[in-house]
Amino acid sequence: MGWLPLDLRRTQPRLAVESFCSEVHADELRHAWVVDLSAEGLRIQRPLGGPRTRSLQLELEVPEIDEVIWAHGEICFDEVWNVAPGPDVVLSGLVRTSGIRVVNTTRRHRRMIEEYVVETRRARRRDHAVHDFLLDASCYLRG
Questions:
Q1: Per-residue pLDDT tens for 50-72?
Q2: Which residue of 16, 49, 119, 135 has the fewest CB atoms within a 10 Å radius of its CB?
Q3: Which DSSP string corresponds to 8-60?
Q4: What are the boundaries of each domain within the chain?
């Protein structure tokens, strides 16, 4: 899948997270790992394989919130990445990485995610006194 036109790319900042999620497509359940999150979308990583589809149902756990959120997502990009092993890496080696735009969820769940992202970013800046310009960008610079 290719990149979306510039005007359809992310406009909200994302927050780096580590959270479990499941993707459901055609009655098949596959586990994945959420690596960044915003009120409008998320990026997941999972082992290679599985169906290639444009949309899927997601069940995800928002870190620090004791609630499971269901959302219908549309895949914006789907790529294979080589992730180097490290102390903070859950999946290493070749992994399938997908950027997903949330197209349908409850207002309550969208608001929970948005508040989590905003408040966690605020707390991280306060705790570390560092501003993460990359997460504030409307899109990553791609070479």
A1: 777 888 999 998 888 888 999 99
A2: 49
A3: GS--S--EEEEEEEEEEETTEEEEEEEEEE-SSEEEEEEES-S---SEEEEEE
A4: 10-129
- Whether residue 22 is predicted with pLDDT greater than 90 in this model: the reply is yes
Question: Which CATH architecture fits 10-129?
Answer: Beta Barrel (2.40)
pTM attached to this predicted model:
0.74
- Between CA 10 and CA 138 the distance in angstroms is 6
Query: Within a 13 Å sphere around the CA of 123, how many CA atoms are in the beta-carbon half?
Result: 7
State whether the Cα torsion 123-83-10-108 is positive or negative. Answer: negative
